[in-house]
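User: Hey, quick favor. My workstation is busy. Could you predict this chain's structure for me?
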Amino acid sequence: MVKILPNLLTISRIAAIPILICLLMFVLDPLGSWLAFAIYVYACITDFFDGYLAREMKQESILGTFLDPIADKLLVASVLLTLMGIDRMGGLTVLPASVILCREIIVSGLREFLAQIKVSVPVTKLAKWKTSIQMVAIGFLLVGPAGPQFGSLSTTEIGIYGLWGAAALTIFTGYDYMIVGMRQLISEGDP
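Assistant: No problem, here it is.
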């Protein structure tokens, strides 16, 4: 099962995380930021293609179903924590990062619970938008001070604004998931 292409892409995404973090932490800017960004773009591309290829090639697997959301959460959490650790973001920017990380943990737990009682929660279009905005915002933050100015905004500022937008959508999508979970808990007889 590990040898099928979609699973290899997912595993390569997980393997890319420590490389990305080391580039951010140990390679001087601007080179470190741009190389980390390149690895991140690769990870984002594999995130799209592993699921797409699994469906198209009829290679969906239990391993892929298990690893894909873990790879996504590991990537987001690792990058956000590293960006905080290297002072690329701080102060109030910790708030949207915390909202995003907390939502990921809550939704993971909720999905695990619902899977045990054979209830699936489909990903909504709004959740896909949240993920897209979040991925782009993190990309801007990775480039950070090594990136160009966009009018009066720096690359880092655009990333921070994007992170706030993603956090706002995170609250809405997290709320949707919680409503589904609570309804299921009530229907299972748990007060």
